[in-house]
Design a protein that fits this description.
By secondary structure, the chain is α+β, with helices and mostly antiparallel strands. It contains eight helices and four strands, in the order βαβββααααααα.
Length: 206
Amino acid sequence: MSLIVHHLNNSRSQRILWLLEELDLPYELRAYQRDAVTNLAPPELKAIHPLGKSPLLEADGHVIQESGAIVQYLIDTHGQGRFQPSAADALRHLQFMHFAEGSAMTPILLQLYTSRLGDAAAPLAPRITEQLASHFAYLEGELRPSGHFVGDDWTGADVMLSFPAEIAVMQGAGEQFPKLAAFVAAAHARPAWQRAREKGGAYYGY
């Protein structure tokens, strides 16, 4: 088995490193740096995939794109039951796997992009703010008493949702959403997360 992770600094690909460390899988890390002015990925990533985005995982002769697909591949192929939901929770898990990069990331990315527009972004700002608060509140309400989004142990959905949860806490919403803050703290306390941070570098303040 040979796994190669194409990892971009300050990006969601950090989640893939975390999962690989949790599953104790050997992998090669190829790191790329964002442009200091544009914040875009370097053109070298386009040699791996036409869109030039990260994360990308090379495995079994395939280049796998999209964080959710990579997480699903890893837990299905190499998880041996770890980070997998129970059969009863499979549908909930599926929904949250897609929610993380679909609904949850839309207002986060809009906020990121419009932050570069200055006053021109003012008409969109109230709607983006409302959507961020709505999505963070939804996640707060969906955390189970166990502190996880699906079942009572860590799953792929927790890995995927760690990024929007981190954004919520980073933006100062931790006091408003204490369960999200506790979820992020629990993830960051895991030795596998800390190993991944050491290898992938600090990102967005973490």
